[in-house]
Structures are given as C-alpha cells and as structure tokens.
Specification:
It is built from nine helices and 15 strands. By secondary structure, the chain is of the alpha/beta class. The structure holds nickel (II) ion (NI).
C-alpha cells in the first residue's frame, strides 16, 4: 500500500506539539471514566491557546467552544474520544504505556491530539464563521461516554457534528468518507435456559439444558442466513456458553451470551424479535424455560447527506480529490458516535494510516500503532471542516 502524503498539511511546529501530546498520552493511558490525567493534559493544551475548558459535564472529559462571527445558526461540533483499553502493550515503542495492562490500542491518543491540533489551528484564525465546539469524550470503549455527555446537553445548540477514526486498512494521506451506514449497532443478549437436572445415565427423567442450549446456538445461526436480507450486513454471535458441573450429571441450567450487530436500524429490530422467537420456540420444543434479555448498546453510525458532502469537500482540500474514498466494505465494529449521529446531522470518517514498510497491527491488538503523520491529516481536516461547514450554515445573504 503506497502512501499518498507528500508533505504535512499543518505547520511543523503544530505537528511537533501534537506528536509530543500523543506520545505523552500514549505513555499514560487511562481506562474509560478514569481519564483524569488525560483531561488535565487536554485542558492544559487548550488553556495555552486561551480557550476555556468545561470539565463539569461528566466525571472526565473536556468540552470547549470557540466563538464565531454568527451564532444564530448553531454550532459545529467536532468530537474525539480519549480513553484507552485494558490491554497489556507489546509494541516495544520508546513511548510505550507505563501502566501495566492499560494501552491506547485503538488510537484514541491520536484522536485526542489531532483535535488539539485542530484547536490550535482554529484558535489562530482571526474569526470563525460560527462557533465550534470541541468535545473530548470519555468512555467510548464502554459505549457510555457519548450518551452521558448528550444527557448533559452537549448537543443542545449543535447543528452538525463530526468525528473520525484512525484506520490501518487505508493508506496514509487518504480520508475515507462514505454516505449512509459506516458502523454497525451493537447490542448484547443473554439467554438463560432452565431444564431439569438428573443422573447422566437416566436422561428420560431430566430436561438437558446442554442439549437445548446446543440446539439453540445452531438455530440462532439461521436468523442471519435465512431471515435477514443479505444486502444488509448483520451478525449474531454467541460468544459464551456456560452449562453443567460434572460429566455424570445432566445440566439443569445453561446460559448463552452474545452480540448482535446490524448496519440497518430496521434489521436491528428484526434480529431482536427473531432471537426472542427462536429461543422461545426451541425451549418449547424440549420443555425447557428460556428467558431472553437484550441489553441495547450503541446505535449504528449513519452519515447524513449534507454533513457528508461538507466532509468530503474539506477532506479533498487537505488530501486532494483522488485520496478521498468511500469505505471498501461494511464495518461491523461499534462506535458510540452513533448516539450523536442519531440526534444530529453527522458524519464520521476514517483517516488512513498505512505506509510502505509499516503495515500496522489491527486496533485492539497489543502491538497496535499508527503513522503519526495521520495526526497532521486529521488536524488539518477538522480545521478546514469547521470553517467550511460554518460557512455553509450561514445563508449567503447574511
Ligand atoms: Ni476506537
């Protein structure tokens, strides 16, 4: 994969500053809701630009709003996630994590420093068309942070919101902008099966929860393959199956836990209904009691047309038309940006980071890393986008 980035799209002094922040955050990763030091570091950087920090909305995380010429058309919001993962780092980098078992293995250190880079570029402008809100969001990995911030009103005066993710699947210097579905919804299910325990040699006196559970695991596989339109990507995975205590005892209870992913909100509803129906039917077939609990998670990320057009334009200004591309295939990963995108016109992009000789490990790997020049691309993109989208919000006559 060749890189299409020939020169840095931001001043090298700004680049050096955000690389330094990225490495510092990388050395000091913090798990969801524990991002205190990260919050302080972000506030310190924003403070050095003369920007006021609001840290009152959630236990961790920072929000700042840069003023604009015209505030009557709302605010443009840009969001970065700031948390790390419970993974033990094995990159061997000189700035590897100093916290055993905690690592920035999803590039959120990069997202945070990119948005700080954009803050520096925006703060250096004489005037912005409309106010720009920068959201440094905690707890993306647990799928809780976006929702918590929205409940405090962070989107109340926001007209459009944008975000993005570093992605090793695309070359450095490319920005991936796609209309419509870009991340799947993610929900969890727990199915408990109550049969009747008994002697392993006398199955006729028992109702075997292992057999019912096994049948159910297989029956659940037919939902996506036989009931859902194959044009709409979806997944039902049973990730955990617990049952039984001894080889000579028929298990009375079994518990299946899994994940449901869907790109289309209608399919999400269909999957839930089918899981309930199939589970109940399999229980009835063998006279076992089956209970289904579905724990709703993050909604799908669906990019809206206008913000996506604005994003595509800003991306082309930074990396050139030919390096703005659509997603190559459906992404079934979850992203809690979906909560913002559910409430406001939104666009979520991906920043390519592969470069020759650096085919990086996947996100959530203990050896994950990325090309730091991606930070410059992302910072430049957010900077251009905030101005371009702001100009779009103000009618030509005003
Ligand atoms: Ni991530």
């Amino acid at each position: 994969m060749s890189s299409s980035l020939h020169s840095l799209p931001i001043p090298s002094a700004t680049f050096d500053r955000i690389v330094e922040v990225r490495r510092d955050l990388h050395q000091h990763p913090e798990l969801s809701w524990k991002e205190q030091r990260t919050t302080e570091r972000v506030c310190g950087f924003l403070g050095s630009l003369g920007l006021a920090c609001d840290t009152s909305l959630a236990p961790t995380g920072v929000v700042t709003t840069l003023p604009g010429r015209d505030s009557s058309h709302g605010i443009i919001a840009l969001r970065a996630d700031i948390d790390a993962l419970p993974i033990h780092e094995e990159t061997g980098l000189p700035f590897a994590s100093r916290h055993a078992g905690v690592m920035h293995a999803c590039g959120h250190d990069g997202h945070t420093s990119s948005l700080l880079g954009a803050a520096a570029l925006l703060a250096a402008e004489d005037e912005l068309p409309v106010p720009v809100r920068l959201i440094f969001q905690p707890a993306e990995e647990t799928g809780e942070g976006a929702r918590a911030l929205i409940e405090t009103g962070v989107l109340d005066d926001v007209t459009m919101i944008f975000g993005g993710h570093i992605d090793r699947g695309y070359p450095l210097g490319s920005i991936i902008v796609t209309d419509g579905h870009v991340n799947a919804s993610s929900d969890r299910f727990k199915i408990t099966i109550a049969g009747k325990g008994g002697h392993a040699g006398r199955p006729h006196e028992a109702t075997d929860a292992v057999v019912v559970g096994s049948l159910l695991v297989m029956a659940l596989q037919t939902i996506v393959s036989r009931e859902i339109n194959p044009a709409h990507p979806s997944v039902v995975t049973v990730g955990r199956f617990e049952a039984g205590n001894a080889s000579n005892v028929i298990a009375e209870h079994a518990c299946l836990r899994g994940t449901i992913r869907a790109q289309d909100p209608g399919v999400r509803v269909e999957l839930e209904q089918s899981i309930r129906r199939v589970s109940t039917a399999v229980g009835a077939l063998h006279d076992a009691r089956v209970d289904v609990e579905i724990q709703p998670g993050t909604p799908a990320v669906i990019n809206d047309r206008t913000p996506t057009e604005l994003a595509r334009h800003a991306a082309a200004q930074v990396v050139g038309d030919g390096n703005v591309r659509p997603l190559e295939h459906a992404n079934m990963g979850a992203e809690d940006f979906g909560w913002y995108a559910r409430d406001r016109p939104a666009c979520y992009v991906r920043f390519g980071t592969s470069s020759p000789g650096h085919e990086f490990f996947p996100a959530h790997s203990s050896r994950f890393d990325f090309d730091e020049r991606t930070l410059a691309v992302a910072a430049a993109y957010y900077h251009r986008l905030a101005i371009h989208a702001g100009q779009h919000l103000i009618p030509a006559s005003s």
